[in-house]
Amino acid sequence: MPAELTALVRAAQRGDEYAFRMLYRELQPGLLRYLTVLVGPDAEDVASETWLQIARDLATFTGGPGFRAWATRVARNRALDHLRHQRRRPTVPVPVETLTELPGAEDTAAIAAEWLGTDSAVALIATLPRTEAEAVLLRTVIGLDAESTARVLGKRPGAVRTAAHRGLRRLARVLAESGPDGALRSADGGPAAKQVADVRSGEDVEAGQGWR
Amino acid sequence: MALREMRSAFRRRGRPDPKAAERPPRPEAAERLLDAVAAERLLDAVAAGVVPESRPAPGDVPDPLARLLAVAAAPTRPGELGGEDAAVAAFRAVRDAQAMADPTTTSRTTGTRDVVPGTPARPPARPRRLTAGAFGWITVVVATLTAGVALAAEIPALRPAGPPPRAPSAEADPTVVGTPAPPTSTPARPQALPGTEPPPTEPGRPRRTPPPQALVAQCRSLLTTGNSGSGPAAGPRPSAALIRAAGGRDKVVDYCRRLLANATEPGNDEPRRPPGKGATPDPPGKPPGREAAGNPSR
């Protein structure tokens, strides 16, 4: 609800603590999942830094690109700082082995609710090349449109769309090839884990040769 | 097939990808791949929380993908809001600091460096300093929270200032016994103003240091009365504060003896370490005293 969000931002800028709390509840889950893709297990720490900075800089927010995008940008900058500071490359935050802990889905109809937890879903998205993963997450989990996503990522909207589509295709391929019911039943190095590994090894190169 | 369509769509957007176009689509996966229009529709649907319940159209959106995205964008889970209070505390601290520093403007915030395009231009980002600043704020928040907790812990004990040595001050907290009552006009809101000069000591700390005189006085009366009678238990009942400080009712006498011995030593009549830290002033030469002190305030 953009109108509600705007009202909350205004109230928080006037010093309304409750409004700030509501902003946190609204944005934090998405930011945390996004940060998980960027910095893995350090996501909570970076999220804390993010909110400290949001608290500090809230008064400077003028409403331009939308608060959601603004906060996401802050989170991303914090994450990139974090990565630079750690001098390490972003890695798959949740190991693929986690996927093997998924319960076997007896009932195909219940797959959506049961086989895949949020962590596993985010982890699977995180196996994409980073720009694709970011584009997919910003558009779905954070809920930004292509233009806002482009601003956050510092790319053109067309490039962001392309990245998101590529990411979706890659995910669809992994899911499609992991079983007729699409379940990520990958116990003991099952199809999903193998496919994810394939995506990581081979398709990254493909992405690298693409529009980037 | 879908791949080709999508690639041509990409080219229409002005991003030619000749290498990709040369690659043949994977036949086994091509059926399930979604085209650009379907991808956009899916992204929007997930973002809006409207997840396609089933396959909308043949060859359109693969169900597992929609489910995957929907699960990734699932509503808030309990563990994800763990930092809420800390974030709100940071907000409060910043707000109060800014209000204190400059009640009319927000000029203090002009030092921000993270800028989203569309906001007024600012100096280029300087990540290092920013990170340092963030950690500084974490420190501020921790200090603020600590101060708040300390203050809150003390508020119920504000009523009886200066405990009479023999009075049955059962609820007197050892950490505040004999403490001059803080001004009641001070609200529970943390007063640590991080942006301004931080106070040399944390605001809540000095008041938490227990002045031992009250305990010493209690001990003195307890031991003198108790020793003259038939054991310490027959004397005046030790206050709850004293029991807590000693680490237990049966340790009161030991504790008092050590306390008095320590208090009467010249230049050492004011033990500096609070009993709550588990380090009751031990007279030299009494090693087993430490275990008697325990961790009374917890």
Number of helical elements of chain B: 12
Assess the beta-strand content of chain B as a share of residues: under 5%
Query: What spatial form of chain A do the alpha-carbon principal axes imply?
Result: globular
Question: How many helices of chain A?
Answer: 10
SSE arrangement of chain A, N to C: HHHHHHHHHH
Provide a descriptive summary of the structure in words.
The complex is a heterodimer of chains A (212) and B (298). In chain A, 67% of the residues lie in helices and 0% in strands. Chain A contains ten helices and no strands. In chain A, helix 3 (43-57) packs across helix 4, helix 4 (67-86) packs parallel to helix 8 (146-153) and helix 7 (130-142) crosses helix 9 (157-177). Chain A is globular and about 50 Å long. The model of chain A is unreliable at 95-114 and 180-212 (pLDDT under 50). Mean pLDDT of chain B is 57; it is low at 1-32, 106-132, 148-211, 228-233 and 266-298. In chain B, helix 6 (84-101) crosses helix 7 (127-154). The longest helix of chain B is centred in the middle third of the chain and has 28 residues, at 127-154. The N and C termini of chain B lie far apart (70 Å). Chains A and B meet through helix 2, helix 3, helix 4, helix 6 and helix 7 of A and helix 1, helix 4, helix 5, helix 6 and helix 7 of B.
